[in-house]
Predict the structure.
Amino acid sequence: MCGIIGYIGSRQATPILIGGLRKLEYRGYDSAGVSVIDPASGGPSRVIRCRGKLANLEEKLTREPAAGTVGIGHTRWATHGRPSDENSHPHKAGPISVIHNGIIENHLALRAELVTAGAKFSSETDTEIFAHLVEHALIAGAPDLTTAVRRSLAKVHGSFAFVVMSDKEPGVLVAAKNSSPLVVGLGDGENYVASDVTAILAETRKVIFMEEGEMVTVTRDGVTITDFEGNARTREPKMITWSAVQAEKGGYKHYMLKEIHEQPRAVADTLVGRINLEADDVSLDGIELDVSKIKRIIFIACGTSYHASMVGEHLVEAMARIPTEVDLASEFRYRDPILGPGDLVVAVSQSGETLDTMEAIREAKRKGAQVFAISNVIEASIPRLADYAFYTHAGPEIGVASTKAFTTQLIAITLLAIHLGRRTGTLSKERARELLGELVALPNKMRDIVESGAQIQAIARRYGNANGFLFLGRGSQYPIALEGALKLKEISYIHAEGYAAGEMKHGPIALIDEHLPVVVLVPRGPSYEKTVSNLAEVRARQGKVIAIATRGDNEIGGHSDEVIVIPDTALELQPILTVLPMQLLSYYVADFKGTDIDQPRNLAKSVSVE
Ligand code: M6R
């Protein structure tokens, strides 16, 4: 997830671009850059870009100013290629400058074609490909920048918002959208494009939100919107009444709610380029694990990432039949763990900076184990320490409570389990094909749940005054019960316990009375009947049951006070769906209580202390 902005008008572009990028820095912050052109002088555009936070770019611009009244700017959150000056946007090919938010899925094939055609690449990014495609389209006879962009769009697959500028046609900016956000801002004798309305709110409140498959040619005096085939599209501009702070949250009340709603998109991004439906296999970005050398897998992680790892234990054992354990990173090295070269340690961390997890990795490496890191942040300390780094591509998570980081971790772990299972031979081609099909279908099913927030909000209001909650689940739903309890505790400050449903009778059953809401994860599966029995035990003691069940389960309503349904999916993927109502329930309970949801007391987003 990157931030993009473009300006065309009569004022100096650079201060406007930097002002916009400041508002976008939350979207990405590992490098930034601008390309600015002065149409009056007809000179080539000047690209200034560098690794690091926006402040580095601002400092560089004081030494190397970029003057001109047309420009594009970008703040990067790396997906392809490490954060570096060369990989920073804008990317240039001849007269063409490009900025991009998203992922070009077929970038490897296109790169090979362009190299054969003589293109010289100066970065590792997928984005630079688009600059070369547009340049080549112009060389091949496209009459103008808009046509060249249109012809290039026909070649790329994936999610993108591009803004393109040409030294030879400095009076236009051309932008296009597919699955990544893009908004056009309308001014008086000047116009804007941006990934986010926040970036241009200080300049204009009159905007057009671009829709999927649309492109726009922007001049000082107007905008022309078409689809990718060139058919005209018309749309009335909207006046934005949100405050700047509301706009940063995309109109949602909190970052956490925005991030809950971003999950279908985030999960789709985690899957991009990693599923091979022809081979019934997955690609771990070129990582090939030699399963003949792996005798045991040990997941290490903290907090929410630990819960994802617990699900991982189920997935890896079921699919790859390799003995698997899970350890809390904060405990791991204090018990002098027995480790050696036959062990693959999988370190899971959203931030990639959790000190406990880093220390656990150091211990594992000292003892000769191989380390595979799953991180959301590219080039963070944890992936850099590991032998293999695999990224979740969820985009920056601002709310302290992990939501999209968690579901994308589950996807990354599922891909790892399929990779291992195909190589040990314990996951058949047929089952792999079914699972891959289910993975592809998952974002729409997730959308279905996150959009049913009104029912969960009503439930949250009914039970939001409770003094405590119990969460129960069996099998891979047990980690989701733990995650539900953690989520509720951290943002609503209500005490909550997560338990394996079968353990309830060994203690927590004493807590149950008519005041205790008990959330029971009971999707269809091998543990269904047993979990229904636990649920009946709760009801027999007047506990209030909130069941999370599979759509079409007509039995469960008779045993529960509330039922929240999820769509059906493969057993292995159910945790990715059942956790969504947990997140929404916690969010709405906390909202009902009026707590500081995005920055709950005593917590930090990145825990870099032991
Ligand atoms: O960045 P990490 O995934 O390594 O962080 C681990 C925990 O600190 C984190 O998951 C924490 O539990 C979250 N606040 C949970 O929402």
Q: What stands out?
A: The chain has 18 helices and 26 strands. The longest helix spans residues 429-450. The domain at 250-451 is CATH 3.40.50.10490 (Rossmann fold).
